[in-house]
Amino acid sequence: QVQLVESGGGSVQPGGSLTLSCAVSGVSLDDYTIGWFRQVPGKEREGVSGISTTDGRTRTFYLDSVKGRFTISRDNAKNTVYLQMNNLELEDTGLYYCAADKGPPRAGLGYFLKVGPSPSATWGQGTQVFVSS
């Protein structure tokens, strides 16, 4: 059974940094697509970044607004996916979730982030990021 636990959220000022962690248990990261999504009350859920392995290659994808500021990575030994967030902006505030979907994304990571994972995906409980001056 897949379980995901996020951590690392907090309150920072604009320009600050946070590193979110998504600890995955029960499965191998190589077999799953992992995505970071964020939710702000009153707004639609937004796919922030994703990572997957296809044909032996690790691929990543980012929402345009976080490119150059966020970096997704994973440590297979620790079965953990990280989201390093630098130069945080007010608009990055939200509840950040990681989600695990079995297999590579059928239509690419961009589509995976745009429409969300499949109904059979597993979600973590979320970690709050609050950017405020």
Q: What share of the residues lie within helices?
A: under 10%
Number of strands: 11
Q: Between the first and last Cα atoms, what is the distance in angstroms?
A: 41 Å
Largest sheet: 7 strands, mixed
How big is the Rg? 14 Å
Keywords:
single chain; 133 residues; mainly beta; seven-stranded mixed sheet; 5% helix
How would you describe this structure to a colleague?
It is a single chain. With 133 residues, this protein is mainly beta. The protein contains 1 helix and 11 strands; from the N terminus they run E-E-E-E-E-E-E-E-E-H-E-E. The strands form 2 sheets. Strands 2, 4, 5, 6, 9, 10 and 11 form a 7-stranded mixed beta sheet that branches.
Topology, please?
Blueprint lengths: L2 E5 L2 E3 L5 E8 L6 E8 L6 E9 L2 E6 L7 E6 L4 E6 L8 E9 L6 H7 L6 E2 L3 E5 L2
Parallel strand pairs: 2-11
Antiparallel strand pairs: 1-3, 3-8, 4-5, 4-9, 5-6, 7-8, 9-10, 9-11
Gist of the model:
With 133 residues, the chain is mainly beta. It is built from 1 helix and 11 strands, in the order βββββββββαββ. Strands 2, 4, 5, 6, 9, 10 and 11 form a 7-stranded mixed β-sheet that branches.
